[in-house]
Amino acid sequence: MSSPPATPQLFPLFADLKGRRVLVVGAGSIARRKIDALLGAGARVAVGSPALEPSVAALVDAGRIEHYPGRFDPNWLNDAWLVVAATDSPITNRAVATAAEARRVWANVVDDAELSSVQVPSRVERGPLQIAISSGGGAPMLARHLREQLETQLDESLGDLTELLRTQRRRIRQRLPDIAARRAFFERLLAGPVPGLLRRGNHAEAERAFEKTLSEGAGTTAGRVALVGAGPGDPGLLTLRGLRVLNEADVILHDRLVSTEVLALARRDAELIEVGKQVGGDHHATQSRIHALLVEHARAGKRVVRLKGGDPFVFGRGGEELETLHAHGIDFEVVPGITAAVACAAYAGVPLTHREHAQSVRFVTALGRDGSDPIDWPALARERQTLAFYMGVSGLDRLRDNLVAHGRDPATPFALVENGTRAEQRVVTGTLAELPEAAAAHAIRAPALLILGEVAGSAATLHWFGPRPLRLEDAPATGTSIAQAA
Ligand code: SAH
């Protein structure tokens, strides 16, 4: 047994102030905020103060609150359940606290834990759902920090979920009088489609799904899959929604391209399965294995996250995976990610469009991997557009030759971004004419993204992340092997 703490802990309570009288002493901007919160909780508010801030005076004029003019008088506390002292006079605040103590009225003195018999916690609110955080007045900054973290993690739709459960509470108890069965039902309900439907604002559908789950009682859980874009590597570029589903996942199927920093954000006990495609491996076999794993884990009732580098719908085969899920009747959602072209451009200081030089951007890939040539070279060679090539490290000489042969200016600038947004990011810049040589001279490897177009020239001046961009002439003159990665 551990010994009791030196100072006893505060006892948390949620007070029902509806129709109850609360006195606020002071009428400045802090008092105003307290008055608003108290009115929001349905309290009958009286404010005691010699002078009133205009917005507080307006409330008095509108008959929404009462006013006791003049200096603090302990008789103001008659009939009060609670008093909030929010004056800028420590003497008055103390007088309020002392008078309240003598009359057994709970008192909160703003920013003074010692004088307060009750403290107002930091709060996270989602509709009727409230999370209150207190450090006992000892570390309010820490409480605030935690509050901010919770704000990012808890979806807004939790309020709707709370409301739905509140209205259905009696029916749930009638249907499942046994507590263990009820617990199993809630697990199933929360892991099932209802929270996701509420998040999408689909209330009618959510109610139907709720009814279905309730009719099944304690039965078995239906799994679901979230197809999530992990972004290019920097974990700060994951979306808030992506972070939330990662936090809830039981199983995470991820590509090799997903950074370890992003994976570190997953729930500790989540099962991580790497399903990355090996270079030169059998892509078809890999993809069927992914489909099989997705279906297997979802059928087992798991919350599955399929985590892909960048955005799942940009050269990510996300569409094929969703078709498989759809065919098997498995519920899914898609969380977009920041795609490599957008991220690498930003982190290399290259605006993808420009009012004068580039009116369009193309995302291009699969440069004739099997010898066939599906590329529309004349279209790509057109001026005044930016090209972003994915998987653009091998075959750079062929790329250059074709673009130049079809009329693109050999002096067109490029920026080749290796490991974009990661700590190891490198950027090579130059002109189309020298592209393959520059990439080889600096031994650029996958993952790398090639940006070609007039806009790429700005990397020289607008770069802000990682080391300065490299040029062909920066490479050691001899002894560099021509290294090319897939
Ligand atoms: N779905 C991903 C793209 C997958 S294709 C997305 O939206 O970004 C894989 C290619 O993306 C790589 O060969 C490379 O060209 C590019 N890529 C992905 N992450 C990258 C990064 N951090 N830096 C540079 N290129 C990247």
TrEMBL record:
InterPro entries: 4pyrrol_Mease (IPR000878), 4pyrrol_Methylase_sf (IPR035996), 4pyrrole_Mease_sub1 (IPR014777), 4pyrrole_Mease_sub2 (IPR014776), CobA/CysG_C (IPR006366), NAD(P)-bd_dom_sf (IPR036291), Siro_Cobalamin_biosynth (IPR050161), Sirohaem_synt_dimer_dom_sf (IPR037115)
Function: Then it catalyzes the NAD-dependent ring dehydrogenation of precorrin-2 to yield sirohydrochlorin. Finally, it catalyzes the ferrochelation of sirohydrochlorin to yield siroheme.
Protein name as catalogued: Siroheme synthase
Xref: Gene3D superfamilies: Cobalt-precorrin-4 Transmethylase, Domain 1 (3.40.1010.10), Methyltransferase, Cobalt-precorrin-4 Transmethylase, Domain 2 (3.30.950.10), NAD(P)-binding Rossmann-like Domain (3.40.50.720), Sirohaem synthase, dimerisation domain (1.10.8.210), Siroheme synthase, domain 2 (3.30.160.110)
Domain Tetrapyrrole methylase, first and last residues per copy: 225-435
PROSITE patterns cross-referenced by the UniProt entry: SUMT_1, SUMT_2
Biological pathway: Porphyrin-containing compound metabolism; siroheme biosynthesis; precorrin-2 from uroporphyrinogen III: step 1/1; Porphyrin-containing compound metabolism; siroheme biosynthesis; sirohydrochlorin from precorrin-2: step 1/1; Porphyrin-containing compound metabolism; siroheme biosynthesis; siroheme from sirohydrochlorin: step 1/1; Cofactor biosynthesis; adenosylcobalamin biosynthesis; precorrin-2 from uroporphyrinogen III: step 1/1
Residues annotated as domain Sirohaem synthase dimerisation: 157-214
NCBIfam families, A to Z: cobA_cysG_Cterm, cysG_Nterm, PRK06136.1, PRK10637.1
Keyword Phosphoprotein recorded: yes
Domain of life according to the entry: Bacteria
Residues binding S-adenosyl-L-methionine: 232, 309-311, 314, 339-340, 391, 420
E.C. no: 2.1.1.107, 1.3.1.76, 4.99.1.4
GO biological process: cobalamin biosynthetic process; methylation; siroheme biosynthetic process
Keywords, ordered alphabetically: Cobalamin biosynthesis, Lyase, Methyltransferase, Multifunctional enzyme, NAD, Oxidoreductase, Phosphoprotein, Porphyrin biosynthesis, S-adenosyl-L-methionine, Transferase
Amino acids binding NAD(+): 29-30, 50-51
